[in-house]
Amino acid sequence: MESVYNRIRDQRLLDRIVSAEEAASWIHDGMTLGLSGFTRAGDVKAVPFALAKRAEHEPLKVNVYTGASLGSDVDKLFAEKNMLNKRLPFQADATMRKGINAGDFHFVDQHLSHTSEWIRSNVLKPIDYAILEAVAITEDGMIIPTTSIGNSMVFSQHAKNIIVEINTAQTELLEGIHDLYEPEKQGERSPIPLTKPDDRIGVPGMKVDVDKIKGIVFTNQLDSPSTIVEPDDETVIMAQHLISFLREEIKAGRLTDKLAPLQSGIGSVANAVFHGLLDSEFTDLEVYSEVLQDAVFDLLDADKVRFASCCSITLSSDKMDKVFSNFEKYRDRLMLRPQEISNHPELIRRMGLISINTALELDIYGNVNSTHVMGTKMMNGIGGSGDFARNARLGIFVTKSIAKNGNISSIVPFVSHVDHNEHDVDVIVTEQGYADLRGLAPRERVEKIIQNCVHPMYREQLSAYYEEAKKRGGQTPHILEKALSWHINFEKNGTMLQRVEQPV
Amino acid sequence: MESVYNRIRDQRLLDRIVSAEEAASWIHDGMTLGLSGFTRAGDVKAVPFALAKRAEHEPLKVNVYTGASLGSDVDKLFAEKNMLNKRLPFQADATMRKGINAGDFHFVDQHLSHTSEWIRSNVLKPIDYAILEAVAITEDGMIIPTTSIGNSMVFSQHAKNIIVEINTAQTELLEGIHDLYEPEKQGERSPIPLTKPDDRIGVPGMKVDVDKIKGIVFTNQLDSPSTIVEPDDETVIMAQHLISFLREEIKAGRLTDKLAPLQSGIGSVANAVFHGLLDSEFTDLEVYSEVLQDAVFDLLDADKVRFASCCSITLSSDKMDKVFSNFEKYRDRLMLRPQEISNHPELIRRMGLISINTALELDIYGNVNSTHVMGTKMMNGIGGSGDFARNARLGIFVTKSIAKNGNISSIVPFVSHVDHNEHDVDVIVTEQGYADLRGLAPRERVEKIIQNCVHPMYREQLSAYYEEAKKRGGQTPHILEKALSWHINFEKNGTMLQRVEQPV
C-alpha cells in the first residue's frame, strides 16, 4: 500500500480504485473515448483490453480519439474486434490499416496540432470518457502523465468523465518533466509565451475537477518498445547529404553551428540523421520535436544536444532500460508538452525549426505524398509533418529514391496524393543527393530534382516525361493522359519501369 | 513647394528629389527590385515605367519581388517587354500569365506570409533597390506608405538602396493608419503581441537608414481601380448558403452573432458574401484580412463592421472617390499592416479567423485547387489562401459548381493540382448548398459534397465514379486510370460531360 499512497496522494481519491473490468463496464455502445498515448508511449494498457473483452459478447462500438498511434496492440485489438465507429487523428498499426482501407470504420487523418481546437470548440463529438495513463495523482488532484502527453491535456479538461490508469512500471522520476499548458479559446487567447525549447510555460500535471475522476486502475506494464531499424548504407548516405546541406547553410551565413531547433519525424532515416550528427562538428543543439527516439539520447549522452522538448518518448527495448534506470541524468534536459504545443504553428515559425520528415513519394515539382499508397491506401496518417513543414525555417523531406527493388520510383511525374505541396517543401534528400528548392520556380525545380535526387534507373524516363510535357506549356507542365501512368503501370505490371510495357 | 515640404519633412532629403528617368538609370541588368504594391493598391507608378522605356533599347532583365499583384499595368508592361528573370510571390495580369505559362520567365508562387522570412534570412537574392510608394517622409526619415503595405516593410529594412515615390494623389489623411511591425530573426523572436484586430503593435511608418534613400520621385496618379463584378443571382445564393452555415454555428454554440474576425479573398463571391452580411442579424463584426474591397466600406457605413485590419485597400473607381474624400470617417476604424502580419499563422490561429476563399476546382474528398487550370496553367497564385485556410477556425472555400456553360464541373473526381488538401478545407459552398466537412472521414465527405454542392448535371456522373472506385477500396478510393479523365475529356472535347464521348 506504500506505493499506492505515493501514487495517489490526493486523499479524496483513495476510494476510487477499481478493476479494469469495472471501469470498462461504465462505457456504453456509441460512446466517445479520449485515450492517452502517442507513438506507443504513455498509452493506457488495461481498460481498453477489458473493453475489448466485453466486445466479444455484446455489440460495442466506440469513437476513439488519441494523441497519435497506440502501443500495446490496442489499435490492432480494436480493429480486430470491429469496435470502432471513428478513429482519429493518427494510427500506425497493420491490422487497423487494413480495416481503414476496407472502409470498416471511419478514420479521420488530421494535423496533430488541430485535434485539440476541434475538441475545445465542440466541433467533434464530446468525449464521454478520457482514459489517461499517469505516474501519480498529486495532493491536489493533479494528474501526472507518463512517457507521452499527446492530447491528454485537452481530453482531461473537456471530457465528461475521467478514468486514470496509474502505471507503476513507469518510473516516478517522470514527475516534474511535463509542462502542461492549454491555450485559451480562440478569440480570447494570449500569445503562447514560449520562445526557446527549454521555456517552462505551464504546470507539471493536469489540474482537473476531481469529481470527474470516476475510477483509478493500477497497471504495471512498460510501453511497447519501438522497432527501430538500424541505419543501413543508404540511410547513412542520406544523413551525410543532409549534413552537407546544413554545412552549406552555415557557409552562406544562414545558420550557425548550433543550427536551429531540430524536429524529426519518426523512423529509421530520421534516426540515421541524428546518428550522423553524433560525429559532426555541430554542437549545443536543441531539439523541439514530437517524438524523442533512441538517437536523441545518444546525442544527450555525448553532450551534443543541450535540451530536448517533445510530446512523447519512444524507445527501443534496450534503450528504454538504459534511459529509465538512469533517468536522473536526463531529467533537467528534457521536457514533455501537449502535442498542440510541440506542434504549434506559432512556435514552429517563431523559433524557425529545421524540420525533417519522410516522404512516401514526391513529384518533379516538389509536391509530397506522405500517406496514401498509390493515391488510395492509407499508411499511417499525416501526423505532425504538415504542422512542421509548413511553418519551419527549413521543411526537409527525405526518402530513398526507389522502393520494392527498384520497381517503384519514389519520384514520379505527378504524385497520387498531396500532403505537402510545392509551397511547403524546401529541400529533398535521397541517397542520390539533395535538392534545395527554395526560391526556385517549378521548371527550375524539375532539373534539380532529376539531377540530384532521382535514381539513375528512372532518370531518363522522368526527363522524357518532362520534355514531352514542356511542349504543352504551363507553370507546371504535365501530360494529363500520362501523369498517373507510372502508378497504373505498377498496379498492372508490378513496376514503374516502362521497358516492361507501355512504350511512351 | 508647400506640398513638397509637407510630403518630405526630413530636411536631409530635400536635395534627393530626382526624375523617374534618373532613378531608373541607377538600375542595371540582372538587379533585384522590391516594389511596393498589393492587389493594385500602393504600387509605384513612375520608376517602373521609366525602366520599361530603357528596356526598349538595351538588354535589361530584373528580378521583381512585390507584395502581390501590381496595378497601373506594370506587370503587363514588364511581361510585354520581356524584362523579367524572376517574379514573386503573386500576380494577376493576363499578359504576365501568358508569359509565365509560356515559360518566358520564372514565377515563384508563394504563401504571401512567407516571402519576408526568405528575405530576412537571405534565402532569396538580396534586393538592390526597394522602390516604395509613400504619402510622406516624416521629420525623422520615416517612410509612410499609401494604400497598401504588402512587403514594403521587409524591403525597406533589407534592400541595399531605396527609391521613394511620393504620390500626391494619395490623401495625406492616410498617415496614421499604418502599423509597421517587423518580427525579429527566427530564433530571437518574441511573440507577436497582437490579440485583437485593432491592436496597434508597431509604428506609423518605416524607419530606415536615410543614407539608403538614393532618390525621391514625385508622382500624382491614383491606384488602378478594382474591377469588381457585381453580385449575380448565383453569388447571392452562395452568400445566403454561407450565412445559413454561420447561423447553424451560432445555434450549436460555436459562434456568437459577433462571429469571429473575418478574412475574405478578393473577388465577386467574397464581395457578395460581405454584401449578404449587410442584411443579416450579425453585428459588431471585425475584419482581419489581406484586402479590403468595396463591401467592407458599406459594412463600415452601416455600422455592421466595428473595425477592419488589412494590408491593402482596393476599391472600384466610384468607391475610391467616396472613401478617400471622406477618409476622416474611416481612419479610426481601419489599420494597414505588413502582409506578414495580416497573414501570420500565429495570429490567424490565435484569433480563430473565419476564412473565405475561392476554389478553382475541388474533388470528392475536399482537396482544393486554387491556382492551376487543368493542372498546368497558372491563374494568379496561391496568395494568402494557404496562410488563412490552414490556420483559421473555419477554412471555407466557395466556387460556382459549374463553369464554361456547364462544360466544366468545379467538382471533379481528382483535382489536377492541390493547393489546400483535405486537412485544411472545413466547409465548401457552391450555389447548390454547403458541405460541412469537419470531423468527417473521406468516404463521409464524398456523400455530403455530391449531395450538397455538385451541380445536378454532374451528380450522377460523379456518383458513378465513386461507386466504381469504392470497389477498389482504400481510405480515398480512386480509379487511377479515370482519375483525370474529366480533365482529359475537357481538353479533347471541350466538356467534362461524358455523354459526348468516353462511355465509362
Automatic annotation (TrEMBL), chains A, B:
Signal peptide: none annotated. CoA binds at G265, I266, G267, S268, V269, N380, G384, K404. The active site is at E290 (5-glutamyl coenzyme a thioester intermediate). The keyword Hydrolase applies. Gene3D superfamilies: 4-hydroxybutyrate coenzyme like domains, Acetyl-CoA hydrolase/transferase C-terminal domain, Glutaconate Coenzyme A-transferase. GO terms for molecular function: acetate CoA-transferase activity; acetyl-CoA hydrolase activity. Residues 15-175 form the Acetyl-CoA hydrolase/transferase N-terminal domain. The keyword Hydrolase applies. Residues 324-465 form the Acetyl-CoA hydrolase/transferase C-terminal domain. One of its GO terms (biological process) is acetate metabolic process. Keywords: Hydrolase. NCBIfam families: YgfH_subfam (TIGR03458). Belongs to the acetyl-CoA hydrolase/transferase family. This is Acetyl-CoA hydrolase/transferase family protein. The lineage of its organism: Bacteria, Bacillati, Bacillota, Bacilli, Bacillales.
